[in-house]
Amino acid sequence: MNAPPRALAGVAVPPAVLARLETLEALVRKWTVRINLVAPSTAAELWTRHIADSAQLWPLAPPEARTWVDLGSGGGFPGLVIAALAAGTGRPAVTLIESDGRNVPSCARRRAPWGWM
Q: Does the keyword Cytoplasm apply (predicted)?
């Protein structure tokens, strides 16, 4: 597993958030082997290509936003990263919507151990 940077796209990452993102990284790697959540060609760059790329959206969320909806969540990006960053801030609630039933069980399993989404 790559050692992640302490900042993502200009967003300071407190230790609790970093731990959430590392959990996400481990679970995506585990599930990608089974159901191809991310393309095999991008798996080696999971942190920079998917997690950091998703995190760059966080500063764009208006402070008054109460809900973030990720339509077509697929492997959970950017929704799960935004949820990790939003946890503990009181904003926004994150909802992932995915029509492909193969991805839904993995999203549910990734949410269950966290308790922050």
A: yes
Structure tokens at 43: 């798996």
- Sort 45 into a burial class: Cβ within 10 Å, 0-12 / 13-18 / 19+: middle
Task: Please give the Cα distance from 73 to 80 (Å, whole number).
Answer: 9
CA dihedral 32, 89, 62, 74 (to 10 degrees): 10
Report residue 4's pLDDT band, with 50, 70 and 90 as the boundaries.
very low
Identify the residue whose tokens are 């990284």.
25
pLDDT in tens, 66-89: 999 999 888 889 998 998 888 878
Instruction: Specify the residue for token string 């060609």.
Output: 41
